[in-house]
User: Which sequence fits this backbone?
């Protein structure tokens, strides 16, 4: 089976505005340009995978059902806008549970690698927290980008940078 290259994305702060523990559809605001950028990554043969810590479930701020309802809404919006998300991996645990899936650990990425046959060296991670980048580094993902508001504000900035450097 041929390995795929993947674009790994954190959710809150990368795909949508991060207002803290986003679990209501009414609070879910897609970041500017996300649909355009992800369509372009898809055209460049990247499989799009979301890896997101959702400690609000483990902390009791919202339920697994509420998360899944929002997830279904998000995936439907992507589909309506011509973007296919291969899979959403999420960690429902609170930090003190010390699980293997919570970023900065690489459990979600390594599960995706096994399940979807991902070539991590040719893959990219985009996150908005250092824990996203740490997880990417632990998993040995080829390139990782931190949306820090300075160098990169959004996924379009990363895409433009990659195209300018002729990396894509």
Assistant:
């Amino acid at each position: 089976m041929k390995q795929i290259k993947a674009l790994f994305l954190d959710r809150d702060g990368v795909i949508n505005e991060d207002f803290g523990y986003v679990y209501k559809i009414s609070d879910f605001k897609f970041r500017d340009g996300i649909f355009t950028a992800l369509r372009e990554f898809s055209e460049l043969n990247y499989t799009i995978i979301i890896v997101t810590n959702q400690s609000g479930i483990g902390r009791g701020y919202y339920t697994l059902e509420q998360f899944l309802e929002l997830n279904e809404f998000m995936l439907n919006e992507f589909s309506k806008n011509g973007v296919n998300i291969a899979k959403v991996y999420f960690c429902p645990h609170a930090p003190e549970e010390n699980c293997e899936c919570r970023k900065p650990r690489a459990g979600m990425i390594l599960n995706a690698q096994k399940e979807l046959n991902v070539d991590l060296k040719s893959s990219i991670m985009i996150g908005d927290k250092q824990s996203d980048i740490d997880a990417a580094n632990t998993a040995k993902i080829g390139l990782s980008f931190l949306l820090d508001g300075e160098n990169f504000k959004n996924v379009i900035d990363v895409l433009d940078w990659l195209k300018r450097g002729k990396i894509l």
About this structure: The radius of gyration is 15 Å.
